[in-house]
Amino acid sequence: MLTNQRYNLLSYLLNYLQLVVSHERYSKMGLRAVATIFAPIIFGSPTAATFDGFVEENDQRISLLLLILQLYTEHDSLFIKTDSRTQIMIIRSTQRVQGHLIVIGEELTMFHRSNNFVFFRHNQYLCSLSTEEACVLLSPLNSQTNPKQRLSCGTMQTHKNEK
């Protein structure tokens, strides 16, 4: 199991590579080209002593990254980490966030929060909001069915009201 930091790094990297591939018309970088460039960076350089061994080892790393990118593109739900920090949220109002329209009632996955920012996944995009913006825009999914739960702007966690 990946640590949260490594999972978040991998998620950002895969989203970035997916973004590059989605603009292949302009970037001239398809899945294979991206995998060829980034496989040695992600998995390290081949260590084989012979040229043929080096090429074979490099091709295996490229194939592995190509498979990961294809799975991520076609079955991205396999890559959503489900732990106590991941929370399904619902949009309270329609707004444009980082150029992407998010519509009232849509669900998104919040996967990291800090004192200043909230990072979430909406469709295939990774987005961030300031904590203040997130308090206005997002509600925990279960808050519609349980009015005793609210979004705490300080920690972005769900809390039960104390009586």
What does this 3D model show about the protein?
With 163 residues, the protein is an alpha+beta fold. It is 41% helix and 24% strand. It contains five helices and nine strands; from the N terminus they run ααααββββββαβββ. The strands form three sheets. It has a five-stranded antiparallel β-sheet. A two-stranded antiparallel sheet has the order 2-3. Strand 8 and strand 9 form a beta hairpin. Helix 3 crosses helix 4. The protein is elongated, with a radius of gyration of 20 Å. The C terminus is likely disordered.
**Strand residue percentage:** 15-25%
Strand order of the largest sheet: 6-5-4-1-7
State the order of secondary-structure elements, H for helix, E for strand.
HHHHEEEEEEHEEE
Described by the principal axes of the CA atoms, the overall outline is: elongated
Biggest sheet features: 5 strands, antiparallel
Instruction: Work out the number of β strands.
Output: 9
* CA radius of gyration: 20 Å
- Count up the helices: 5
Which secondary-structure class do the elements indicate?
alpha+beta
Mean pLDDT: 76
- Helix fraction? 40-55%
Could you name the ranges where pLDDT drops below 50 across 5 or more consecutive residues? 143-163
Give the distance, in angstroms, between the N- and C-terminal Cα atoms.
39 Å
